[in-house]
């Protein structure tokens, strides 16, 4: 697969069957970095609900083989905060090719230009050096470590916290 075979586009509920299949295929690959999931999480219905959730937006990394990754901005806040939290993953077969960096950079541009967000935050389990490298390459800065931040793979895990300031324009009035 070449870079020309891939595209990043907004994800929507019609992607749910392909997303459920991709998540099921990558279950073991994602396990160390994700909360434990019930079996229902890996269904099209659950993914359709996730893609329809208020306060979030997702972008699919799509190729000829279907969905190969996803990035989501959740907890989108407007007003004076203008911030969101970023989560992302890439199919195990395609890691190490710069695709996660490409996906994260695309989402940051959309967050700045379309959503007019000021700041994006992301957290990684301490041992997830690959994700930390993606964030740093994408202009994020480490700003702290949160003890027992999220319940990941069956335990409360410390996380490194990163942020990217997208611009310093004032928020729109009204």
Automatic annotation (TrEMBL):
The domain of life for this entry's organism is: Bacteria
Which Pfam family, giving just one, matches this sequence?
Acetyltransf_3
Q: Which residues form the N-acetyltransferase domain?
A: 6-163
By its UniProt entry, which InterPro entries does this protein fall under?
A: Acyl_CoA_acyltransferase, GNAT_dom, N-acetyltransferase
Query: What are the alphabetically sorted keywords of the record?
Result: Acyltransferase, Transferase
Q: Which family does it belong to?
A: Belongs to the acetyltransferase family. RimJ subfamily.
Name of the protein in question:
GNAT family protein
Q: What is the lineage of its organism?
A: Bacteria, Bacillati, Actinomycetota, Actinomycetes, Kitasatosporales
